[in-house]
Amino acid sequence: MPRPNTSQLKLNLEIDILKAYRPELIKIAKTLALIVAKQSGRVSSPQILKMMPEVIQDENLKKALETDSNCFMGAVFRGNKNFVKIGRENSGSHKREVTVWGLKCS
Questions:
Q1: pTM confidence score
Q2: Span of 3-12, 67-76, 78-87, 92-101 with lowest mean pLDDT
Q3: How far is CA 42 from CA 62, 71, 92, in A?
């Protein structure tokens, strides 16, 4: 019997935890990511994080966005059947390399 891919299992578990922890933020981020990707053909986490404070109405969610880790963004793209990795760019915090995503062709 083949050994399970423990790193993939760990990643799936982490994404499930994030989905349970911040479902509202993830839902907003997914919607924004789809809009941006449809308009420009590409999207990255920093783009979405920059837009989110402008569209969030709920003060509790705004505070969570300001104070919580941005790790929830992993749940926006990973495991999402709408997106595929198309490259990397230096646009994260401190100009760190981040993944660029595009829409999957159906």
A1: 0.81
A2: 3-12
A3: 25, 20, 15
